[in-house]
Amino acid sequence: MNNKDSNKTEQMELFSKLVSQIPMLIYVLDKHWNFKLSEGAALSKIGLKPGEVVGKSARELYKDNTNIISSLDQAYKGIDTSSILKLDDLYLEHYIAPYYNKNNEIDGVVGAAIDVTNRLKSEDELQKTRELQNAILESVPGMIYMYNDLGELLFWNKWHETMTGYNKEELYLKKFTDWFENDEQSLAAINQGLQDMKTKGFGETEAYLECKDKTKIPLYFTARLFKLDGKDYFVGMGVDISNRVAAENKLKVLNHTLEEKVIERTQELSDANIELSEVNQELTAMNEEMQAMNEELSNSNEKMIKMQNFLVESEKMASLGGLVAGVAHEINTPIGIGMTASTHLQDMVNDLLELNKERPLTSEDIIPYLEDIDKATHMIYKNLNRAATLIKSFKQLSVDQSAEPKRLFDLCEYTNEVLLSLSPSMKKTKIKINTICKEPVMINGYPGSLAQVITNLVMNSLKHGYLAEQKGIITIEINRKDPMIEIVYKDDGVGIDNDIIDKIFEPFFTTNRSNGGTGLGLSIIYSIITQQYKGSIKCDSEKGKGVKFTIYIKEDII
Question: Which of 50-59, 140-149, 274-283 is the least confident region?
Answer without folding.
Answer: 274-283
